[in-house]
């Protein structure tokens, strides 16, 4: 299982409500340096909006050229808040590294350690929510809808998704693509629709993906059969482990 380190972006309040500012902020993030500093060999730079293996290579791209200059030109006098889970030291390290990169452009970045319970309430009052939220979620299955609908669905009031769309990102066109992809039985149609949904989020800069982070386990030599217990990250299915 590969987890995805990413940023949720508040597209409706503060400096990040400006599309040009969001694009400049994203371009100021050096993912290669971030991965090297925070995870080293235990992660790779994200290339897609979905976790690795959920959609074909070349689809749902989340690429940009690192260039801090655009943000440097917009940062003067601006302040943003970057929230992260308060109970996870590794997430604090990543948030601090992001703060350092963004602050180098002249942007004032305040870190906000946050309890999970507080994060679930942001969508109801985005004007007082943070501008960015860093987190490392994991997929429930290999179908792209289990990722896209949970994190990207914009019409939360419909009850059809967006239950972890913390900062209100997403678009109507993205929702429509997901709704068309979910009942599709043709693999090409599924890929087309979820690629379209991902493109909406990428173009909006509603989500910024950073790294693909695998689970890492340390085990005695000779043990084989490692497999995940899917409902939880960092958890092995012990019954399938074998000696030899």
Structural commentary:
The protein has about 240 residues and is of the alpha/beta class. It has one domain (about 1-215): Dipeptide-binding Protein, domain 3 (Roll). It has eight helices and eight strands. α6 runs antiparallel to α7 and α7 runs antiparallel to α8. It is globular. The model has no long low-confidence stretch (mean pLDDT about 95). One of its GO terms (molecular function) is peptide transmembrane transporter activity. Pfam families: SBP_bac_5.
CATH architectural label:
Roll
Reading off the top of the CATH hierarchy, the class is best stated as Alpha Beta
Tally of individual domains:
1
Q: What proportion strand? A: 15-25%
Largest sheet: 6 strands, mixed
Q: What is the alpha-carbon Rg in Å?
A: 18 Å
- CATH homolog superfamily: Dipeptide-binding Protein, Domain 3
Supply the number of helical segments.
8
CATH fold field value: Dipeptide-binding Protein, domain 3
**Distance between the ends:** 23 Å
| Approximate shape | globular
Chain-averaged pLDDT: 95
Count of DSSP E strands?
8
Which sequence of strands runs across the widest sheet? 2-6-1-5-3-4
| SSE string, helices as H and strands as E | EHHEHEHEHEHHHEEE
Pfam family, one: SBP_bac_5
Keywords: Signal
GO molecular function: peptide transmembrane transporter activity
Domain Solute-binding protein family: 7-155
Task: List key phrases describing it.
alpha/beta, Dipeptide-binding Protein, domain 3, 6-stranded mixed β-sheet, 31% helix, globular, 244 residues
């Amino acid at each position: 299982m590969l987890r995805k380190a990413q940023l949720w972006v508040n597209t409706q309040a503060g400096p990040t409500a400006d599309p040009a500012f969001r694009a400049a902020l994203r371009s100021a993030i050096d993912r290669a340096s971030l991965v090297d500093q925070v995870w080293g060999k235990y992660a790779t730079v994200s290339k897609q909006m979905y976790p690795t293996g959920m959609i074909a290579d070349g689809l749902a791209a989340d690429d940009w050229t690192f260039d801090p200059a655009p943000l440097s030109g917009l940062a003067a006098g601006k302040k943003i808040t970057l929230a992260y889970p308060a109970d996870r030291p590794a997430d604090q390290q990543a948030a601090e590294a992001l703060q350092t990169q963004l602050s180098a452009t002249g942007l004032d970045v305040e870190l906000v350690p946050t309890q999970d319970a507080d994060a679930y309430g942001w969508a109801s009052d985005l004007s007082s929510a943070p501008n960015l939220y860093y987190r490392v979620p994991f997929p429930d299955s290999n179908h792209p809808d289990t990722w896209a609908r949970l994190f990207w669905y914009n019409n939360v009031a419909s009850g059809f998704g967006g239950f972890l769309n913390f900062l209100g990102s997403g678009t109507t066109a993205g929702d429509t693509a997901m709704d068309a992809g979910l009942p599709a039985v043709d693999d090409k149609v599924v890929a087309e629709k979820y690629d379209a949904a991902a493109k909406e989020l990428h173009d909006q800069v509603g989500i910024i993906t950073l790294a693909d982070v695998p689970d890492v386990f340390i085990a005695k030599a000779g043990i084989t059969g490692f497999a995940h217990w899917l409902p939880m990250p960092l958890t092995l299915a012990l019954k399938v482990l074998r000696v030899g």
